[in-house]
Amino acid sequence: MPEEPELETDAPASAFGRDVLAGLAERPRAIPAKYFYDERGSRLFDAITRLDAYYPTRTERQILLDHADEMVEAIGKNAALVEYGSGSSEKTRILLDALHARRTLAAYVPIDISAAFLEQTAVSLREAYPGLPVLPVAADYTRAFDLPELPSETSRVVVFFPGSTVGNFTQPEARDFLRHVAEVAGPDGALLIGVDQWKDEDVLRRAYDDPEGVTAEFNLNVLRRINRELDGDADLDAWAHEVRLDDDPPRVEMHLRSLVDQTLTVLGERFRFEAGESIHTEDSHKFGPDGLASLAEDAGLVRRRRWTDPRGWFAVELYET
Ligand code: AVI
């Protein structure tokens, strides 16, 4: 059947505009978390990863440092390491150091939506790891994309997805994503993934409501973005960052709570808020020891290894197709 052409309407052109208008009209009101990450939002997220209160980044980093040799062994000889959402590939360097020292990697394929950033990263990685084919792909890894041609000696594809970004997907999204990863990895492929674990509620609250207020700025940044890009009129002093914990499924929710009765105008549409009403801006799912394994199983991925820190706050898990 021929594809239906997109209808010309006077709806806002950008996906951001469409999603914000739709999300503010629904109940509960919500804005997808992916819209945090404009340039300022990405910088704020980077600052979050360096906060004392935000344990995931440094805990995962330490797990990679402590177990890199075992991971290299489990990855096997001549794998192509395909990193989803590579950014500056900071954590990957721990793995790349260990893999490159043994000359066991066939190629490194960083995938990121920002082509300019990706090129910079590729240049510095080629310098740091002479002889390693670095094959960047500018793409949105949640959609279909083609892998570049891999060196002929490549034995398998290993997808690397650190940071517990899988926790920002809904469960159906996570299932679809894992299915897509299994397809990209192909037969004999693998997934090495960072998975944040459910833990003491005070630790979780502090991580998402840090005393320095960086996470609050990160959350409020989506309103700044609406003001700038969607002709919004949000008064940033009339909104507060709020964190809620929920256990079904276990997650940290971020909200923007209206401090007063007010009207928010976006692209000419008016949305009425009563004091105390909120916009849900992010879910960060936290998993039990087997939480991700059961989702992955539905996608045809079998867990083979699991590495954690001594407190069991974070895990890095290896799955195979
Ligand atoms: C990107 N993602 C894994 C972060 C998280 O912890 O869910 C985003 C974040 N939100 C608030 N702080 C960090």
Automatic annotation (TrEMBL):
The keyword Glycosyltransferase does not apply. Coiled coil: none annotated. The keyword Calcium does not apply. Keywords: Methyltransferase, Transferase. SUPFAM superfamilies: S-adenosyl-L-methionine-dependent methyltransferases. Residues 17-320 form the Histidine-specific methyltransferase SAM-dependent domain. InterPro entries: EgtD, EgtD_Methyltrsf_superfamily, MeTrfase_dom, MeTrfase_EgtD-like, SAM-dependent_MTases_sf. GO terms for biological process: methylation. It holds the Pfam family Methyltransf_33. GO terms for molecular function: methyltransferase activity. This is Dimethylhistidine N-methyltransferase. It comes from Rubrivirga marina. The lineage of its organism: Bacteria, Pseudomonadati, Rhodothermota, Rhodothermia, Rhodothermales.
